[in-house]
Write a structure and sequence with these properties.
Helix content is 41%, strand content 23%. It has 252 residues and is of the alpha+beta class.
Amino acid sequence: MKDYKRKTALQFYCVLLACFLTTSCTTVFDKAHGYRGPIVVTIETEDGSVPEFPFLIKSAYSESCGHSSCGIDFGYKYFKTAYANEPITFPRERLDLLQPNAYASIEFTVTHPNYHHRGFPRGFAPTDADDPIHVTFTVKPFTEQMEKVAGWAEQGKVMMQNAAPDSNEHFNGKMQFWQERFNLGNTITRHITTIKTFYLPHFSPSMQLRVIEKYQPIFRAWYYGVPETDCWNKMTCQEHILKPREAEYEGL
């Protein structure tokens, strides 16, 4: 019986050693050590168009904190560019997780001059080395985001018009109208700044020039199309919302 146990143990350790010396057990050890990817990302547009310029895609892993401690705050940081409907592969990487086999939250931030800048968080489980994970993110035109915020302002305006001048409904509608009109201008300014400081630096000077030549007049029209300037102080918001922009368009 003892000889049998020794023989069985010897066989087990031989197989274990073979796993280390070959790739036959890659899957087992990968899963035990928290590997993620490769992740194949495809960007689709809500309007079905294929823009002239590529999307900038930033990846980042972040682990949320509990009451005790965290793992690495940020990892899996990559910047890649891809055109619409063009799959782009983010590499396979071992993430330093508190629990190796847990889902890892990786956020892909998508940026383009003509589309709404936003992040797409996804949870990823450990995967086999040969199993790429395919994800598709759909982005919407920035003009749709502008219309969305403008619609919130219009709701406030209608509420204000349909209520008695001295009622709470009238006051609440007025506050919503002022705030959302200000937010609309702020949304446009923030988008322009994002393209200028975040998107453009990742491209060659010649590509930057092409982007600027196309979007400079578009951004200028968006900027001056919303006249309000500053509503941080609601006591003076009504004055500002009726004036042309005081700050000049800085451009790209």
